[in-house]
Amino acid sequence: PAIKQAVLAACDELDGVKDGIIGNPSQCHFDPQVLLCKHGDELNCLTQPQIHTLKMLYAGAKNDQGVQLSSGFSMGDETGWKDWIIGTDPLQSYGVRYVYNYVRYMVANPTINLLTADPDELLRESTAKNAANLDATNPDLSRFAARGGKLILFQGWDDPAIPPGNTIYYFESVKKQMGAENVASFLRLYMVPGMEHCGLGPGANSLGQYGGQTAAGPNLHYS
Predict the structure, then answer these.
(1) Who contacts 142 (Cβ-Cβ below 8 Å, separation ≥6)?
(2) Which residues neighbour 93 within 8 Å (Cβ) at sequence distance 6 or greater?
(3) Whole-angstrom Cα distance, residue 68 to residue 125?
(4) Which of 65, 71, 75, 181 makes an SS bond possible with 163, Cβ 3.0 to 4.6 Å?
(5) Where are the alpha helices (H) located in 17-105, listed in sequence order?
């Protein structure tokens, strides 16, 4: 909560409205260093190692050559990180559990220790074994478009499961591959302020997904 409060104090009003939501987190340049504890570890501040970890979460993953592999998580809804990112211990967040079991059963072996393994070597092994069948990063959607396909992409800016920048990167790669004017005829991307993973979050998040009512209809409850 202390992180979220500090981030909102710095960036909430960038869109001209103070509403507890950052309209475009990519424009927020909050520096976590301002949260450094002055009198020991307390709930309203962070230790230097915690600040280092937070900066890594915001910055995203790079490989051993410094190449960006994934964008970071957005600023503004850090309390929503509890289940997906933080977890109750280093191996109990949803995200880590997915990675852990994928690595154990589809990349390496069931006895591997993720906390001591070389992430760059695991990525290279994963790419060699599974990228052809599992990756969905091909920017050439020409066959889809030629058959009259129309595609709407949407993602919450506060998604704690899939870093929002990854979806933006894919959308931009399709435009680069096929041309912006051509892409505009069949593809749209909507980034939803304050929405978490496919729904929930502090912002408007009921878009008719899951076959439910939109925000204009009755309240939608789902698990």
Answers:
(1) 178
(2) 83, 84, 85, 86, 87
(3) 18
(4) 71
(5) 48-59, 94-102
In angstroms, the CA 138 to CA 178 distance is 11
Pairing mode, strands 187-192 and 151-156: parallel
Q: What is the pTM of this model?
A: 0.89
> For 73, phi and psi rounded to 5 degrees?
-85, 150
Long-range contacts of the stretch 186-190 (C-beta < 8 A, 24+): 186/141, 186/144, 186/145, 186/149, 186/150, 186/151, 187/141, 187/145, 187/150, 187/151, 187/152, 187/153, 188/151, 188/152, 188/153, 189/153, 189/154, 189/155, 190/152, 190/153, 190/154, 190/155
Largest CA distance in the chain: 64
C-alpha to C-alpha distance for 77 and 80, rounded to whole angstroms: 6
Its sign, for the CA torsion 192, 75, 96, 133, is positive
The per-residue pLDDT for range 133-186, each reduced to its tens digit, is 999 999 999 999 999 999 999 999 999 999 999 999 999 999 999 999 999 999
Question: d(Cα 100, Cα 91) in Å, to the nearest integer?
Answer: 8
Q: Please count the helices (runs of H) and the strands (runs of E) in the chain.
A: 7, 4
